[in-house]
Amino acid sequence: MAIEDSKIEKVILVIHGVGDPPPGGTLNRFARSLARDEKPLVEHQSTIWLGEKSTVPNRTRTFPTHVRQLSLDGNQCEMAEVFWGDLSQVKRGMLGLVYGLFQILFGLRYVAYVAADQPGLAARYLKILGLMSSRILQGPVLAITVFLGMITAAAFGTDTMWPGSYKDGLWTQVLLGGCTIIAVGAAAIGLRVTRSRVVMRFWFWLCIVAVWAAVLMIVKAWWIDPMFPEINCDHCAHPGLIWFCRVLVVLLGLIWFVESIVVIAMGACWFSAWAHPRVYKPAINLAFLLPALAVGIWGQALPMAWVFAREGISKTKRIPEFVATFDEALPLLGVQFLMMVIMGVGTSVVLYRYFSWRGKNSISNFMRGSRPPRLIINSLQQWTLAVCTMAGVSLVFLLCMMNMLGIAYQQSPFGLALVEVNKYALVLMVPLGGVALVVLPYLRPGFDILLDVVNHFYFRATKLKDALDDDDEFDIQETTFESGSLFFSRRDMIHCRIKKILVYYRERLRHRPELVIISHSQGTMVAVEILNDPEMAWLSSSFSKTTLVTMGSPLTYLYQHYFGHLYPSLNEPYWNDLRQRVNRWVNLFRIDDFVGQEIDFPTQVKTATPKAWMADFGASTPQCSAHALGCRGHVNYWDDQEALKVLRRELFAEQEEQTSKRAA
To answer: What is the model's pTM?
Structure first.
C-alpha cells in the first residue's frame, strides 16, 4: 500500500558508485539490507520515467528511476535511485572490458589537459603538447597500424590459396586497392555513426592513410617502377606488396620519432612548470605522467601485435619477406619490454606494502595515524613512470637517429644488449598476453574507477548552440556562456539526472520533508557537486533539511589531492553553497579503501567515540561526522552490516528519540 504524499517524512536518494549495478539493483540491495532486522518488510515499489536531453535531434529520451516506499524505525520514507551506470561504467563481458580499456586510453588526454590547466607558460605548453601526443598516437599511429594489419591479413590469406601471389605486381594493386576501398568505406561509416571526437579523428586518419596508399600505388606504377626497375622484381628484398609494407613501417618509425620529440619537450615543460609558485604540483605531475603512460601502453601494445603477426606468419613458413619487415620494427619491443619490467617491479613493491599494511593494522592503529600506501598513482609509481618514460623515449630517439643515419644498431654495444633483451621479450610476450587475457576480468572494478574519472573530466568546447537552443531549467545560461570554454558534457548528463529527480519531488510534494542523499564512490562526487551547484538554490525552500551521506568518497583522497586547483579545501568560498545547504554530513570509509577515505573537514575535533570525529563549519553550516570501518576494500558498502548500523543510528536515531519522548 502506497504512503500518502503528505505523510512522507524522508526522501532518500540513493546514488550508486563503482560496481556495474543494473537499474534498480543498488536500491534493492540497500533497502533489503537496511530492513534486514525488520521482516516482513512492508513496502510499495514503482518506477518513474523522467525526460532528459537526447543526443539525437527531435527525439525524446527518458531514464528510469526506481522508487520504494517503506517504513524504517517509524519513519515513513520514499527511496529513489539515481542510476547513471549506462552513462559511464564499463560494459559487461570480455568485449565490454576491451572497449572500456580503449575508452580509458583514449580518455586520459582529457584528465591530463584539465590537470595542466594552470598558471604559467610552461603549463600551457605542457597542455598543448599533451594533446598533440595523444592525437599522434590515436590518429596516424593507430591508423597506419590498422591499415598495415589489413594488408598483412589480405596478403597472408591470398598466399595461402595462391602461393607467391603477393609478389605479383597486378595482384599487389588489386589487394592494395581492395584494402583502400574497405578502409575508406569503414571510415565513412564510422564518421557517420561515431559521436566521440577522438574516435572520429581515428576514422579520419584511417581514410587519409588509405588514400595516401592509393596515391603511392599510382606513383609507384607510373613513376618509381619505370625509373627504378630493380625494386620491382620477384627476387628483390621487398617484392610486390612487401614494398608497401616496408614504406608503412618506415613511416610508422618516423611518426614514433616525432612522438618521442614531443614527449621529451613535455618533460622539459613539466620540469619548468615546477618552478612556478602558483602551480599545483600533484596536478602538473599528472599532466605529464598520464600522456606518458598512454605512450608506454600504446608502445607496448602495438609491438605485441607485430610479434603475434610475425610469429603466426613464420610458423606457417609463408611470406618470409614479411618476417624481415617486422623485424625492422621490433627493436622498439625490447625498449618497451624493459620499461614494462621496471614498472612492474615498482607496482609489485607498492602492492606488497599495501597488503602488508592491511594485514597488520586495525581501526585503532588508523586512528593513531597509521595510513596505507596509495594504490592509485603512488609516489613510487609516479617517479618510476617518469624515469622510465624519459629513459625509454630517449632510447627510441637514439634508435631512430641511428636508423636515419644508416647505422646498424646491432653493431653497437647498446644494440647487442638490445638484441638480448628482444630475445627475452619475444619469448615472454606471448604467454604474458595470455595471462593478461585471464586476469582482465578481475581488473573490472579498477577499469570502472578509472573510467569514472575519465568521464568526470571528459569535455568538449562549448558552442553557441548550447546556449541558444536549450530552454531547460538546467541548461547553459547565456549570462554565463563563454564560447570555447570547457563543457564537461558527460558529467553534465549525470548531474542532470539527479536534478530532474529533485525537481520531480519539488513539484510533487507540497510539504517540506527531509532530504537524505546516500552515495558511494564516484556517486559522492555527483552528490557534492549538485549540492554546491548555484542552480540548486531552491533546495533549502523545498526540503526541511538536507543530510548528505558519503561512503568511500574520493573527494579528498583523489580529487582534492591530485586536482587541488579545481577542488580546493572545504574552507574555501568555492564551497559556500554546499556548506549552507547541507545540515548534516556523514562520511563512512574503510581504512583500507584505496579510492576513498577521510574527507578533510575543517577544524577537526575528536569526540568520545573512537571511530568518529566531528567538525564544525560555523553558523548555518553542516555538522559533520566521519566513521572508520574495518578492512573490506572499496566495494559492497550497500550491504555492509557495520556501515548499515552506523547509517541507522545516524539517520533515524534523532526521530526515534522524539517518538519515545512523545510516547512517555
So the answer is: 0.85
| Cα–Cα distance measured from residue 648 to residue 518, given in angstroms and rounded to the nearest whole number | 12
Residue 329 grid cell: 620494427
Residue 436 neighbours by CB distance under 10 Å: 11
Q: What is the domain count for the chain? A: 2
CATH number at residue 577: 3.40.50.1820
Q: For residue 76, what is the DSSP state?
A: E
Which tops the pLDDT comparison, 454 or 664? 454
DSSP percent split of the chain into helix, strand, coil, nearest 5:
60, 10, 25
Question: Using an 8 Å Cβ cutoff, are 518 and 15 in contact?
Answer: yes
Does residue 449 form part of some domain?
A: no
75-82 and 460-461 as β-strands: parallel, antiparallel, unpaired? unpaired
Residues 492 and 626 grouped into a single domain: yes
Backbone angles phi, psi at 616, to 5 degrees: -115, 120
The dihedral of CA 415, 420, 423, 425: what is its sign? negative
Cβ neighbors of 26 (< 8 A, separation 6 or more) are 14, 16, 81, 83, 638
How many other C-beta atoms are found inside a 10 Å radius of the C-beta of residue 19?
20
Q: Phi/psi class of residue 71: alpha, beta or left (left: φ > 0; alpha: ψ in -120 to 50)?
A: beta
Alpha carbons 530 and 527: distance in angstroms, whole number: 5
Strands 612-616 and 10-15: unpaired
Are 527 and 546 contacting, i.e. CB atoms less than 8 angstroms apart? no
Structural domain including 590 reads 5-90+460-663
User: pLDDT tens digits, residue range 191-217?
Assistant: 888 877 778 888 999 999 999 999 988
